[in-house]
Design a protein that fits this description.
Length: about 230
Amino acid sequence: MKRKLIGVFILSFAILLASINVSAQKERQVFPFDEGKTDASFKSFREKLIEAVRKRDVKYVVGILDPAILNSFGGDGGIKEFKKMWKINSPTSKLWDELLIVLTNGGSFFKEKNNNLFCAPYSFKQFPEDLDAFEYQLIFDNNVNLRARPDLKAETVAQLSYNVVKVDYENSVADKNKEGEYLWLKVETLGGKKGFVSAKFVRSPVDYRACFEKKNGKWKMTTFVAGD
């Protein structure tokens, strides 16, 4: 009888360990990656552009736009459309915050047809191809608190670093002052960790991204879009 009980205990413990290991193996992360600093000319260009964006230098930013810049997947493109879409001369333009996030979060070089491009942020090209970019998002920072409730005083149930997550929008906390935006997002990692994180730490791989190409010796922004 004792042997039978011991056998059952060992088997149960083995199953528990196996389930823990499987759960842990399911976690996926997309770590920051930046090839931009490996190219001297692009590195210099990006540093100047970041400085211009921080200063909200409209003239400089417009000057680095490609004449046929892609602004959306339904428009005609071009600089005039870009300026109108982003209300670039308005003090409340959202361009500067969006572009700064994109430019300061890495990226990678790749070839499209015969063109060499750099696209940022890193999350756009580095997101796992086997995961649906519209179904999954990622934690866009290190050691982000996953809380039991949508409250800064709530218990921290785990810390997430660049984890791939699913967002439950129905049970998330919307920002009443900004339509379509959220304060807290209810998320679940691929390993089964559940809780709430501040919305600013979650990013979709198909959120805004910028692509750049060197034309006639000068880097130009050829794309600044969201979606697919």
